[in-house]
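lol so apparently i was supposed to do this last week
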Amino acid sequence: MFIDLTGGGFSVHCADAMEETRKVTHKGSFVAVVRDNKQIGQRHYRLGLEFEADAAEAFAGAEPGQFAQLDLAAAPLPPAEAVPKDLIDESGRKILLRRPFSFADVVSKGGKTVVDILYGVVGPATLRMTGLSAGDSVSVIGPLGNGFRVPEGKKQALLVTGGMGAGPLEYLAKVLTADFPDLEVIAFAGAKTAKELPFSKRLDEISQGLGFSLAEFARYGVKSLMATDDGSAGYHGLVTDCLAEWLGQHRLVGADVIIYSCGPEQMLARIAEIAKEKNIDCQISMERMMACGIGVCQSCAVECKVDGSEKTVYKLCCEDGPVFDSREVVFSS
Ligand SMILES: Cc1cc2nc3c(=O)[nH]c(=O)nc-3n(C[C@H](O)[C@H](O)[C@H](O)COP(=O)(O)OP(=O)(O)OC[C@H]3O[C@@H](n4cnc5c(N)ncnc54)[C@H](O)[C@@H]3O)c2cc1C
Ligand code: FES
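anyway here it is w/ FE2/S2 (inorganic) cluster bound
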């Protein structure tokens, strides 16, 4: 049964083009069963969660950019030898609050919905997440927040990911290429080093055949460029510099383009500057520590500009976001 946590939501992908595919997105508290939990890098995993019945229906409508709150308090710790050295002290910490995660893929079939979450191991909750295995149950609240939107008249969509920000943009690539076949989609994926790029790094047949670097985007026919700060893969430098150079070489009409981005806030701030300089629409997925995820605790404030005024207001990352127009966000220096 749906437990409507906030009175329900009505969500639309795009003003007109998507009018017919409007869907009512219910959110609720559900139980998911772990389908798989694959290690894809040194500290990167991909968790598949399977939902049935009402939960399957709710998550079938999950949009790229939305997220879910996972209860990982009861997830088992991995064996001591599998705990990274820097997390040994923290590994025993109790997990009181749920943790937010976006969706890297959503597949509905035969009354079931499988949601993929791409995650990095950074603390006690994500460490316990690695201990989940097929058949385990996880309590999940979602889908929450708003998703990325597609304004009318766009010809190119540039997806810019930093580190673990890749997940929601992978799912966005899938939805954009399926729903907007005339839109050219290009992904820019950045990380500090090649080891920290959260991809399988396998050049599969499709990506090799197309000459594309990342199989995760090639499977949707999306060309991708990689950037690493240390030059260990792809462009040597920040992904934001890679994007700026690319935009310098490709004389696109600003109004035709939209940038979507997810990653560390410093990166998002630079993306917002680039978009402003080039007069390009830009939507960014912000991160905040989230205690409730449903607009109650007020812990996830994002300072936003008020249109036509010097004033700012605080919006909630969990309810008004996590996706914001880059022009409205006030970034901390
Ligand atoms: C809307 C949203 C979507 C997210 N999607 C994903 C995802 O798809 N994959 C993924 O790997 N992670 C995602 N995150 C981040 C994820 O929630 C955190 O990595 C997780 O909560 C860390 O829990 P922990 O107990 O392992 O580490 P903690 O001990 O809680 O944190 C470890 C370190 O990470 C920092 N941190 C933790 N959470 C956040 C946050 N939300 N924003 C900024 N810094 C934080 C802490 O300050 C600390 O330095 C998302 C966050 C938000 C808000
Ligand atoms: S996380 Fe509680 S209000 Fe946003």
